Amino acid sequence: MTQVEEKEKPKEELAQQITKSQIWKSIFRHGFEDSPRNRVLQMTAGFLLHTRPVKVWTHGIRLRYTWGAGGLTFLMFVVACVTGVILMFYYRPVPEYAYADMKYLKFDIPYGMFLRNMHRWSAHAMVLLVLVHMLRVFLTGSYKKPREFNWVIGVCLLTLTLLLSFTGYLLPWDQLSIWAVTVGTNMARATPFVGHEGPFAEFISFISPRFDARSFLLGGTIVGPATLLRFYVLHCIVLPVFTIWFVMIHFYRIRKDGGISGPNKALEEETL
Amino acid sequence: MVTAVGWLSVLTACGATGAGLLRFMFPKVLFEPSQIFKAGFPHDYAVGAVDTRWVRDQRVWIVREPTKMYAVSAICTHLGCTPVWLNNEDKFKCPCHGSGFYKTGVNYEGPAPRALERLKISIGGDGQIVVDKGKKFLQEKGEWELPGSYIVV
């Protein structure tokens, strides 16, 4: 035995001890030698890679077909979520502080203006990209069988996106927000049955300016402190939770309906 | 049978919870400004003028004609902005979308679909004008002739 080998021996033993320990094996659950079995395990044994599709169509990565609009919409949502949570460290949803906190974020917090603008622009871009994504899906006929259900999920997501935008609009608590939300919620007066100025409301005895669709949104009869708090909770908790839930179903259904839709092969060959 | 009773109980519980949550969203007490305000004495107002002194605090104009007075709600019937009284042009004009109204409140230009609303007006025990913004009188329903929509002076 040489001297070097003698020195190496305890090291090897230590390595063996570590890699065969229960902790190590619970984290690294399979071997690393390049075998077909390990290749499969790399994909299926962990969560992140497991959520990826086993196969991807070649048209799925062709930008000219999908425009990547759906993925970009999701990216914008993630950006808005992350920056939104950061803004929550400073913003207080009460009339005394809301506007001042917005200004404070803008002028006195390092990177505050940058983060606020990121939140705002990603929200704008998200609305735009949802529409672009819908246009692409419509033009390629991807809403057709078997993807009808997913189109409806997508319409729900469009509505949620617009509601997220609308509730976020009030939070700066400046003149623009207050009047935009005044105008927006005034439309709820005309809701059939449950809006106090809407059709058929006279047939429901308890519908009044105090108890109708509009006061449900406002938490009163005017855009006031109750409205600000209500919109804040909707904007930061209720609507994002619903959006995340629908996004999960949306992505799951893409996989179940045969992956990203592509050109109709039979039709393409016919025209060629 | 047992399954049906089970599901019915679950649905009833969900329904009751949902109804309770819906009711939860409508507070019994609101901390909002009173809908009723005193607007001084009739002789404080010039005959033939649209008085703008209450617009800032109450969103109400008080108009005095030779024989009667009425209160006009300063809420545009298009989408709820506050119009302004333009004395030189003798009209109410909304800055949001350009709706225009005559001195009477009747709409004649822009997107507003109906006349400005009039509010309940009366003389209180102390001789002062009392305006109640909770009670509206609509021109399109012929309510501007009803008692309460104006006071005789």
Quaternary form = heterodimer
- Overall mean confidence score, pLDDT of chain B: 93
Task: Count every helix of chain A, treating DSSP H or I runs of 4 or more residues as helices.
Answer: 13
The total beta strand count of chain A reads 0
Describe the structure.
- The complex is a heterodimer of chains A (272) and B (153).
- Chain A is 65% helix and 0% strand.
- The mean pLDDT of chain A is 90.
- With 153 residues, chain B is of the alpha+beta class.
- In chain B, a hairpin with a 5-residue loop joins strand 9 and strand 10.
- The longest helix of chain B has 23 residues.
- Chain B starts with a helix and ends with a strand.
- The model of chain B has no long low-confidence stretch (mean pLDDT 93).
- Classes of the chains: A mainly alpha (272), B alpha+beta (153).
- Chains A and B meet through helix 10 of A and loops of B.
